[in-house]
Amino acid sequence: MITEIVTFQLNDDVENSLINPSSPAGKVIRQCLVSELTAKGALYAYFGQLIEKPEMAIIFVGWDSFEDHKNFMSSAGYETHVNNLRAIIKDEKSVTVLHVAFAPSGNPSPALGANSKVGATEIVFFYFPANADKDAIMSSVDKMRPVMERSEALAVYDGWALEEVPNPGAQANEEEKARVFLNLVGWVDVEAHTRFSNSDDFKENIHHLLGIRDIRHTELYHARLYAI
User: Fold this and answer.
1) CA angle, 131 as apex, 125 and 136 as ends, to 5°?
2) Any idea what DSSP says for residue 176?
């Protein structure tokens, strides 16, 4: 099982509230995802806007396999699907597409909202050099798992993206490729995450993550996600 994750900047020439199903952007995103879910192997879809950057949209689509998504991208209806989505994208350079195999199970939807108590999903992108020692990184990540398990977190998933992408933390004259490690945490609300971040347990253990070698760049957001 694989999860497609798409982010892009919303077109500000239209009412760009994805929450409102009757807004231009709200209609387009729902129509596009309903259509995508008819494809063989498509399992679920969630969408929303980043709370910290509401001009940015994020989409999660679960697939039985990466091959199923590739087959959809080569299908006769895919060009129409993409053209419809372009209507709400401000700049195609803002589009990123990742495919992630999440653990502990391949389906991270409990952190996205399948758990009805989840009102905010923490989304963290960690960027590492393409040749980073994944075993060493995961050893540090594993040390934080018990801390998360005794927190208010409702669901925790993480995984590596299949793709290598440009490193957003690179200098202007560099063209460094990066591997992306994603962490998804379902919380009742952002305040629950804030309480955890201010807790002694977090402060006494966050060094396990901060001490990971070769982190090139980190981005942390929250989103209220909606299911199709």
Assistant:
1) 70
2) -
